[in-house]
Amino acid sequence: MSDDTDLLLRSILTDVLGLKQNQASDFDADTGLFGHLPELDSMAVAGLLTELEDRLGIVIEDDEIDGEMLETYGGLLAFAKAKRAAQ
Amino acid sequence: MNPVSWPCPAPAGDTAGEYAIAFDQGRPIRLLVIPALFDEANRLRRLAVEVMRRLDQAGIDSFLPDFPGTNESLQPLEGLEPVDWHRAMAAAARHFAATHTFAMRGGCLFAPAGLPSLHYAPIDGAAVLRPLMRARVLTAREAGREETRESLAARAEQEGIELAGYRLSARFFQNLRTLQPAAAAVTIAQESIGGGGLWRGAEPGDDPAQAEALARTVAQALA
Q1: Closest CA to B222 of B78, B62, B67
Q2: What is the DSSP letter of B14?
Q3: Which residues from B are below 8 Å from A44, CB to CB?
Q4: β-sheet bridge partners, residue B168
Q5: Are strands B15-23 and B2-9 parallel, antiparallel or unpaired?
Q6: Which residues of chain A have a CB within 8 Å of the CB of B202?
Q7: SS3 content of chain B, % helix, strand, coil (to 5)
Q8: Among A11, B80, B173, B198, which residue has the least CB neighbours within 10 Å?
Q9: For A37-81, how does the pLDDT look when each residue is reduced to its tens digit (9 = 90+)?
């Protein structure tokens, strides 16, 4: 099975952050998220996590949310892939 | 489009004036539009009104009331519980002589019984609370306090809770989390509208294509 997590994650970020089409295609592993994007306050992060749960079919516990996972695109992608693999 | 006032039953048994946005030309189809809840209401407000503008063009009257305790309402939210919101939407439906209901997201939980209802991307009460509780946990963590959704829920059941600036009573919290949208309604899924749901955006957005698609879907369902 091919892994579409990367594609889905870019699409979710585009919706949540109101990015222009293709803007998220330029994200690389080091692109900064939480703390770098002013739109991403705690209400928006909560919405983002809920959207990840709904669209990736995963459940995210409070204690899994840490700075590292949200700091960069690469960190969030690694987290999402690991969660999906564990389902 | 006009702002109008309507008599809303208050918990003490009297009535309180609440506001609604109305497109009213006394036409045969009169749609009660029930907004999304809490922070989602802000992000979907423009979509709701843009859909109403298009329905007006299509010959359909519509009314968008405030939930008591939110928006311009003078009632204190913490003195209310979900049954008051049920009564409020039923009273709004009667006052505006609504023939149908169009409810958005968590607003679907409060669609009055007895009217044909369209539900846009409905969610249950637990799903309304989930991102709000999570935002509260994240905010606390940034402030150096450790809270969990479980401990918050346990306390909210006893004392009530403030979520995203909304002060909910213990009874509001207890009763909201078990509410389910009515099964009889016609569901409009976001996939049929296209694009990402505007309720999830970090900031309120505008999407004329979604407003157009949603208005067309609603108008077709009412025809």
Answers
A1: B62
A2: S
A3: 202-203
A4: B161
A5: antiparallel
A6: 16-18, 39-41, 43-44, 47-48
A7: 45, 20, 35
A8: A11
A9: 777 788 888 989 999 998 999 999 888 888 788 899 999 999 999
Q: Per the structure block, which two tokens stand in for A10?
A: 């870019």
Measured CA to CA, the distance from residue B69 to residue B5 in angstroms comes to: 15
Q: Does the distance separating the beta carbons of A43 and B201 come in below 8 Å?
A: no
Q: Are the Cβ atoms of A44 and B138 closer than 8 angstroms?
A: no
Task: Tell me, yes or no, if the pTM score tops 0.95.
Answer: no
Tell whether A8 is within 8 A of chain B (Cβ): no
**Nearest of B145, B146, B177 to residue B160 by alpha carbon:** B177
* B2-124+181-222 CATH: 3.40.50.1820
Is B25 strand, coil or helix? Answer: coil
Q: Are B73 and B67 in contact (CB under 8 A)?
A: yes
The domain spans of chain B are 2-124+181-222, 126-178
Structural domains in chain A, sorted by start: 5-86 (1.10.1200.10)
CA distance B141 to B198: 27
Residue-level pLDDT, tens digit, chain B, 223 residues: 999 999 999 998 999 999 999 999 999 999 999 999 999 999 999 999 999 999 999 999 999 999 999 999 999 999 999 999 999 999 999 999 999 999 999 999 999 999 999 999 999 999 999 999 999 998 888 888 888 899 999 999 999 999 999 999 999 999 999 999 998 899 999 999 998 899 988 888 899 999 999 999 999 999 8
Task: Please tell me whether the interface predicted TM-score (ipTM) of this complex is above 0.85.
Answer: no
